[in-house]
Amino acid sequence: MELYTEDKNFYPGYKMPLRYAGFAGGVDANLGLTTHFRLLFLEEGTGIFHSGAQSFALIAPALLCLSEKEELIPEYLSNPKIHGLFFHPRLINARFSFANIRTPDEALSGTDRQDLWCFRPFLHREAGYFGQLPVDPGAARRIAGLLETINHLSTVQPDDGWPCRTRSCFFELLFLVERIFSAEKKTGEMVFANLSPEIKEIIHYLHINYRNPITISELTKVFHINRTTLAQRFAKETGYTVIKYLTHLRISLAAMILRDTELSISEIIEKIGFNNLTHFGRTFQKYTGFTPSEYRKKYCWML
User: Which homologous superfamily is 197-299 in?
Assistant: First the structure.
């Protein structure tokens, strides 16, 4: 299998360094070994896997984030349904290589380095973590939906915007994977010490549902908590109001998409949960100091 997606109709010779593959009953876990990062999503079933000197069990839903160097041996699989996404770092930024994402060199600007966060689940290793991440049902549905959309866009290629939309969905997926990783490893941006289980659940809900309208009233109903208690506890444990946290999350994702795609601003706001272009522009400028167009002109490496 060629681990790239070739354009069929619009851009002769264009090959996107990304390939989706679905597996039922088994998985070629080392497809892409030495040449691609691999994101495997165990949507159904269970398995025991061997990597390096360690064996570990996975129960669906779960993710495996593997670098190009890591061999994976499935020792036992029971009724698995597995999605595989294979990609090269240059899909995220044309300046990236396997070498400089590990040891950034002078060729990478400060803006380039801002995108290195997305490789952490694939490169960070410590006792007990070999790239495996348990996923709750809400996140699993979102992951499955993004993978389905990536597969559809890259296979059908419905219009000349398919490369940008495919990459945009890919970035959304990486954003979600990194958030799951950060929550598991207790590291990274906007991860807090000593969060209560209740506030963790609310934060997780925001990360899964940020593209939908979310109100304080909705949160009080979902989590059976009154407005005053929610506001006080969330602010005390995170240092943010709920709305400020949600806005920060949405603007962070918007900035990443502006840096790394040419997707229209109207499409971006739909993806991140804003419903008004003017309000988004004002909010984005408040948080970043730039209008969305200025930010893209200054930082998008594709222009």
Answer: Homeodomain-like (1.10.10.60)
